[in-house]
Amino acid sequence: MIRRPDERLCWSFRDLARWTMKKVGSSWGHGISFGEETITESLLLQLAEWYAPHELRIKTWTKPEEGTGTRATGGLPTGADWDFWIVDGTGQGIHLRSQAKRQFSSGHYESLDGAGQQIQDLRNNCGTAIPLYVFYNGPWHGWPKAPCSRYCGPRFSARNVWGCAIAPVSGIPTIVRPHPDQISSMRPWHCLVCPCPLGTGSGSLPQRIASVLRALYEEAGGGDRLRDASPLSFELSITPPPWVPLLQGAIQDSSAIEQYLDKNGLRGVALVRQIAPILE
Fold first, then answer.
1. CA–CA gap between residue 143 and residue 122 (Å, rounded)
2. Which of 3, 19, 43, 254 is least surrounded, with the fewest CB atoms within 10 Å of its CB?
3. Which secondary structure element, helix H or strand E, spans residue 217, and what is its range?
4. Residue 114: what are its φ and ψ, rounded to 5°?
């Protein structure tokens, strides 16, 4: 059982990463599939249970099967798994579009092709969203000490904090089946919400996330193969993505959001609303 040691969100993200690494490693040992969508849903459910209803409110909608393309972007696939709208109490938010990849027992991301069409689609067809790779990792022997451990303390220095990790699209090398150590600017995912110096270290949840993602993309550089993509904006917006009102009305009519997911080739969407400060 995962337990939240205190009210700091970065500790919760760390514990979820540790749980993920344990379960991915167990799936290697037992030869049982533990897919990206299942992991994503499990992590969101645990965060909702820990922080609802007074700190974070999380609402999701998923499809039973993966979409294949998008009519909304001229027939082009998104290359993504999930859309996230992370918003604070003032209505300012950040739109993320994520592609999740699971590490295999070989240590490689077997389903990741850094020169393939999927990564081009993720970057080129993301609209106003920030594209992000999310990695679900197992107990690979090469995990280094977490880069923020001297700020967060020794409990963040263990290898298992890499169970959930993030990286900018431009940090993915143009090779098939990369190792984690070949991916530029990869960080444990708790860095998204942690008061470490990678971002501003302060502000609301969407402000922190936007700051960290800006820093990661600046660190990784633009990437020559992505030079024709539209510039990314890391400014918060008061305009949510179009699926947000559809999600809020899905209990009465699910057809509209199902059509949105189908048209945009997404497996799911998640609305994360910050109700009260929980990060300090």
1. 26
2. 3
3. helix 205-220
4. -70, -15
Q: What does each C-alpha distance from 9 to 4, 47, 84, 95 come to in angstroms?
A: 9, 9, 17, 19
Chain centroid offset of residue 150 CA: 24
Extract the tokens encoding 77.
């696939």
Bridge-partner residues for 84, per DSSP? 96, 270
| Rounded distance between C-alpha atoms, residue 201 and residue 127, angstroms | 27
Give ∠ CA 184-125-132 in degrees, rounded to 5: 30
- Tens of pLDDT along the chain (280 residues) come to 454 444 478 889 999 999 999 999 999 999 998 999 999 999 999 999 999 878 899 999 987 643 343 333 344 455 568 999 999 999 999 999 999 999 999 999 999 999 898 898 888 888 899 999 999 999 988 888 777 655 666 677 788 999 999 999 999 999 999 999 999 999 999 989 887 666 665 689 999 999 999 999 999 986 665 666 788 999 999 999 999 999 977 767 788 898 888 888 889 999 999 998 765 5
Question: Tokens in use for 61?
Answer: 């909608």
